[in-house]
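tool_call: predict_structure(chain=1)
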Amino acid sequence: MYERLTKCPLCKSGLFINQLVVEDKAISKESFIICACKNCDLWFTNPRPNEENIGSYYESPNYRSHQDKTSSITDFLYQIVRKYTLRQKLKWINSRYPKKGKILDYGCGMGLFVKTCQANGWEAYGLEPNANAAHIAQSKHQLTLIPNLEALHKHKKFDIITLFHVLEHVHLLNKTIKILLGRLKKRGLLFIAVPNREAPDAKSFGENWAAWDIPRHLYHFNVKSMQYLAEKHDCRIVETIPMRFDSYYVSLLSHQYKGSKNKFIKAFKSGYSSNKEASKTAKNHSSLLFILKKK
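tool_result:
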């Protein structure tokens, strides 16, 4: 059920140490170790559930990105923010790739971003490994999904490939990036959004920081480790964009995990403070969107 890594999943170095012990406060209440690689600076969950068994850690109404229901104020706020971020993601892509072409959203969840892109004139496709989310995308949103990575070879190359808060969930880190880059056009763009473990809110909340999201998050990136990933795969980071709304939502969940009173007020203050502090430190926000291009 669990697998213990003896080498860093990014750089394959054996030089890593135990950095943190974090509880899965959202679902299982189990505790997991986060290791820190001394070579590439990636932090990673170790040991971790293997690919065959990790699905049970997503099977909860608390995992909102795979749910289409509103049963709490937090769910309601999540859905409001999601509508805004769908438009924002599309705006980021259109402003950097004005000629609409072919786009793949890897880890598309319920397919909302795929639908948003299709409505905007893109030839948009989605790929979602989680069976529950894929079922919603297909049954409710009438999307035809690409079943797996191996099926990508049947498609012509893409102008844009997006992974919005997906890469931290992928077991085969380097293999996945290699396959996706192989299906990206020479002048295409790869959009990767991940939580940033060096954000002010991460330091403030410590082990209660909701974006650790153990054990669903297998990796915990910062700018240095993402730069290493880009260079390893012969890419360059052409732009880094702060995702400012994430700090508010992550702060809300973090205060919820801490059992804070007046969590909504405190979350707003924490999110605002984190964004303000991050702006002083080279856009070191709660989540960062990295835009990669092949060399």
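agent: The chain has one domain: 57-294. Proceeding to next step.
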